């Protein structure tokens, strides 16, 4: 693993902050770190990842488990840079069409994208 890869998003795809935890039980980032990840410098991201590994958390870069998010890439529509996944959040019951919203951001131009996941029609009928 290169030193530069330590500054990458450590997400394992098992974020527990969307279920009320203040610190993710997967990668170890605090809610504030997840929210602000794309605004941190490369050095700040490396330090967060190194601290979380020293605290006993596993980051994507050191995990043997495949991360499904790596296979599904979205590029920024403005500068074509790879978007960084920031987290998934459950949508409240008021929304009839969507169950989850994922947020992505661009570390180059600062664009922010929300991706909505439609509710499963089978679940709606229950």
The main sheet comes to:
3 strands, antiparallel
Counted by DSSP, the helix tally is: 4
* Count of individual beta strands: 3
Q: How many domains would you count in the coordinates? A: 1
Segments where pLDDT lies below 50 for 5+ residues?
121-126
| Rg for CA atoms | 15 Å
How would the global form be characterised? globular
Structural commentary:
There is one protein chain. This protein starts with 30 loop residues before the first helix and ends with a helix. The model is unreliable at 121-126 (pLDDT under 50). Helices cover 22% and strands 17% of the residues. A three-stranded antiparallel beta sheet has the order 1-2-3. It has one domain (4-125). The radius of gyration is 15 Å and the shape is globular. It has 126 residues and is α+β, with helices and mostly antiparallel strands. The longest helix is centred in the middle third of the chain and has 13 residues, at 42-54.
Keywords:
alpha+beta, 3-stranded antiparallel sheet, 4 helices, 3 strands, disordered C terminus
What's the short version?
The protein has 126 residues and is of the alpha+beta class.
Topology, element by element:
Layout: H1 31-36, H2 42-54, H3 68-71, E1 84-90, E2 98-105, E3 112-118, H4 121-125
Antiparallel strand pairs: 1-2, 2-3
């Amino acid at each position: 693993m290169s030193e530069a890869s330590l500054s990458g998003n450590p997400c394992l795809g098992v974020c527990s902050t969307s279920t009320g935890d203040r610190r993710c039980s997967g990668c170890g980032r605090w809610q504030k770190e997840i929210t602000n990840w794309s605004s941190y410098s490369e050095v700040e991201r490396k330090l967060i990842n190194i601290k979380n590994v020293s605290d006993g958390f596993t980051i994507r870069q050191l995990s043997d488990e495949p991360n499904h998010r790596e296979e599904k890439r979205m590029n920024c529509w403005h500068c074509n840079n790879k978007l960084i996944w920031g987290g998934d959040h459950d949508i409240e019951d008021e929304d009839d069409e969507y169950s989850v919203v994922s947020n992505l951001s661009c570390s180059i131009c600062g664009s922010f994208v929300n991706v909505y996941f439609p509710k499963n029609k089978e679940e709606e009928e229950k």
